[in-house]
Amino acid sequence: MYAQAFFVAVFGLAAIGFGVVVFRTSSMVRSALALLFSQTAVGCMFLAMQTEFLGVLQIMMMATEMSIMAIFMVMFMMDPGGMGGMDMTHQKRFSIGAGVVAAGVAIVVAFWADWGPVTAEAPDAAMQTRALGIELLGRSMLIFETAGVTILTAMIAATAVAIPVQTTANSADKEDTE
Amino acid sequence: MNFVIVLVALLGSVWLLAVVEGWTTTGRLRPAAPLLSGLAHLGRESIVPRTPDRVFFETAPVLLLIVAVLGAAVLPLAPTLVIADLATGALFINAALAYVLVALIMAGWGPNGAYAMIGGWRFLGQLIAYAMLIVMPITAVAMRAESLVTTVIVGSQDGLWNIVYQPLGFVLFFIAAMALAFRAPFDLPTAPGELGGGVDAEYTGVRLGVLRLARLTLVITLASATTVFYLGGWHGPLLPPWAWSLIKTLAVAVSMLLAGRYLPRIREADLMRWCWTLGIPLALLNIIVVGLLVLVVP
Amino acid sequence: MIEVTKDLPRSADGLAMDWMKVPFGPVFPGLPGGLKLTLTLDGDGVTEGQATSLVGMINESEEGKEIDAETFIERLASAMPLASVSYRLLACLAIERAAGLENDSATDQARAVALECERIASHLGWLAQTGRQLGFAWLTDRAATLQLEIRRASGKRLLELTPALHALAARLGRTPLLKSRLKGIGILPSGTGGLSGPVARAADDAGDAWARLWQRLDEIITSLDYIKATGEPGLPVLRNIGRGSGTGEATVETPRGEAQLSLILEHGQVKSYRLDTACSHHIGLVAKLVEGRELGDALVAVGSLDLSPWEVIS
């Protein structure tokens, strides 16, 4: 019990620590990977709280996602290495305000919400995985499928918008210039 | 205790693989060569490039080694000889190996050099190609075993190995595993003839030693995963279970090594195209076929 | 963000990114030593590039300084380490013609065989280099071994190597991935100016790296057939020219294309000379070949030209 609380605390603090690094560095790659390790620490918190499947899934998904984010940040930022001394912050007053409000709301929810009774004994990991699978293919199927199809549609739409339209006029232009 | 045994087995396999690698490239069988060159790395100057991202530069080789060992931690050598018999073992190995990408991006970005950086980002593109071909064949394997536990997966292959039950999945997984381990012909992030070593280019001395050890460990881990998922793990006549696991793992690792020797490096565009237009449909077909088999055959 | 990126050059995909100028060479595993390729990279793509030679000859004889004919031959041969027999032959021919010597068919034949031997060895050397560039370890080993054997071989031993060379070509035809790697890369259509040697002959076919590979493999076989029909090689040695004078001009088809030498001979001394080689022209094609290509393809295209930086005359 104490060991569990200890590890949850350690990974929690690590998650916060890496979260701070995200904003303290001017290097885009460091920032993205700090966010990754913050999320990995959250995944480790899941593991410490005996939700094995969720923890492993979180650790796995974040690695690829944050790496892809990193390359987009490198591509679009002017000073991706943070070595040019460029100021990466803007709208400071608004963001501080928004941050404080959001933190306050989160704390209020954490303390005021009714979290229900604490489970005495968590079911073993294999049971959890099975229960999760049945949940995903049962009651929650509609929600997840809708979300999945929506995201897929958005991705296809975004790609379609990004490709320049090939009309006969501008393809003729292209041939002229070549 | 299991931890020590598995680690020794891993190191031993890495050593054997390095000996075979030396044998195929130089034509001489020198059992001491990997140890000697490892020691030589310790003695050499380990240069740090100008204005590096020091944290990434130092962490990357170690992170690569750690993820390779973590991946091996869920793979059983024998029914009880496994470091962590997780309930989500088949998923965990994916999670561990996803950090190969992170390590390579760090190794690419850290030294502040053009060759390394291109190499590191190239691997991100490579991941987009191979990732689905790692995950989807494993899905089909888990479907047959009706479990994500690696020991149960090996148990499910008693009598009929997955290489026979789902040969398509084996071929896809084997190719994707080679791409994940960035072995030739998928060595795009290192590409000696194109990038002068790529992510390896700026590493010297002890850091390069760790990086090489990590790469070989990664190959062994993936070969071991292939053994567990497709070649029936410890199953085999006469010899004790752990011996079969080791023999199969080494055979897979050596075949990965040899395949690269007789092929030119693939073009990135071709890798991407073939993986998405051919590999993923085949992987889906594999899942459907295995699903039908699981449902129809008792 | 738009304000910051609007003046940056755009790549083909419309993204504005920082471009990097990266040197490849003069000592790079995928390129011949001495060749320096400077590429401007936009991610993994090449936006522009040019090649220079750091070891090429300078095409000027020092004013008023005469070189002994024998010394001239030695110098020219050792200045071109990748095709020394060809240039030795070139120098011998030019000097002999300047001295007014008649052709001698027996000598010519032995010389021609030596030239063909060098052509085989040179093409094998190129194959080994290509293997290194493509990460094709087997090809590097095999071609390098054969190259060394050919260089040491007499006429008879050469014929014994014939099956091995045929097998090499057959093996390359069967190798998966090789065709997709080379086909359509580095296209030089037959109208391109300045082409010579295997590159020009491959241009009549498809003109890409794949065609150049097969052109060179075919030339290896053709040279073998010629050697089989003709006889023993003999290293070009200058015949007795006495203290002849005059102007002479010679052309030799070296492994990389046509080389031309014209010189003025005075009393057995070379007074001035003018050398023109295929590589001097081919190196200028690099900029066009690499532009807009992916890095790997650009390097394959440059490699397929078989540039010898030593034979680039500035």
From TrEMBL, chain A:
Top EC class for this record: translocase
List membrane-spanning regions: 6-25, 32-49, 55-74, 94-113, 142-165
Enzyme Commission numbers on file: 7.1.1.-
Annotated family: Belongs to the complex I subunit 6 family.
Q: What is its main location?
A: membrane
Q: What is this protein called?
A: NADH-quinone oxidoreductase subunit J
Please give an example of a GO cellular component term from this record.
Answer: plasma membrane
Q: How does it assemble?
A: Composed of 13 different subunits. Subunits NuoA, H, J, K, L, M, N constitute the membrane sector of the complex.
Q: Does the keyword Transmembrane helix apply?
A: yes
Query: What reactions does this protein catalyze?
Result: a quinone + NADH + 5 H(+)(in) = a quinol + NAD(+) + 4 H(+)(out)
Gene3D superfamilies named among the record's database cross-references:
NADH-ubiquinone/plastoquinone oxidoreductase chain 6, subunit NuoJ
Pfam families reported in the protein's UniProt record: Oxidored_q3
Highest rank taxon of the organism: Bacteria
Q: How does it sit in the membrane?
A: Multi-pass membrane protein
Record's function text: NDH-1 shuttles electrons from NADH, via FMN and iron-sulfur (Fe-S) centers, to quinones in the respiratory chain. Couples the redox reaction to proton translocation (for every two electrons transferred, four hydrogen ions are translocated across the cytoplasmic membrane), and thus conserves the redox energy in a proton gradient.
Q: Where in the cell is it found?
A: Cell membrane
Please provide the record's keywords in A-Z order.
Cell membrane, Membrane, NAD, Quinone, Transmembrane, Transmembrane helix
Q: Report the GO molecular function annotations.
A: NADH dehydrogenase (ubiquinone) activity; quinone binding
From TrEMBL, chain B:
Predominant location category: membrane
Give yes or no: UniProt keyword Transmembrane: yes
Look up the coiled coil feature and give its residue ranges.
none
Q: Decide whether keyword DNA damage is in the record.
A: no
Membrane-topology descriptor: Multi-pass membrane protein
GO annotation, cellular component aspect? plasma membrane
Key words, A-Z: Membrane, NAD, Transmembrane, Transmembrane helix, Ubiquinone
**Membrane spanning segments where?**
60-84, 90-111, 123-143, 163-182, 216-236, 242-263, 275-297
Localization, per the record, is: Cell membrane; Membrane
InterPro entries in UniProt = NADH_UbQ_OxRdtase_su1/FPO (IPR001694)
Q: Which Pfam families match?
A: NADHdh
From the UniProt record, which GO molecular function terms apply?
NADH dehydrogenase activity
GO:BP terms for this protein?
A: aerobic respiration
What is the similarity comment for this entry? Belongs to the complex I subunit 1 family.
| Protein name (record) | NADH-ubiquinone oxidoreductase chain H
